[in-house]
TrEMBL record:
SUPFAM superfamilies: Acetamidase/Formamidase-like
Pfam families found in the cross-reference section: FmdA_AmdA (PF03069)
InterPro entries per UniProt: FmdA_AmdA
Protein name, as recorded: Acetamidase/formamidase
Superkingdom, natural source: Bacteria
A GO term for molecular function: hydrolase activity, acting on carbon-nitrogen (but not peptide) bonds, in linear amides
Amino acid sequence: MTGARQAVAGAIDWLGKTRNLPAEQAYMLCSVCGDLRISEIVDAPNWVVAFYLPRIVFE
C-alpha cells in the first residue's frame, strides 16, 4: 500500500509540473485513466509499484 500511495502521489506531482494541472484535476485524471502495476516482487516485502498513464490521454 505504501508503494501504491507513493506512486500515485508522484504521478500527481508530475502532472502538476509537466501539464500544469491543479492537484485536484491530476488526482481525478489518475483515478480515471491511471493504472498501478507491481513491477518487482522479488525483494518482498519491498515491492516496487509503478503508475502507468497512457500517452493517448494527452493527444
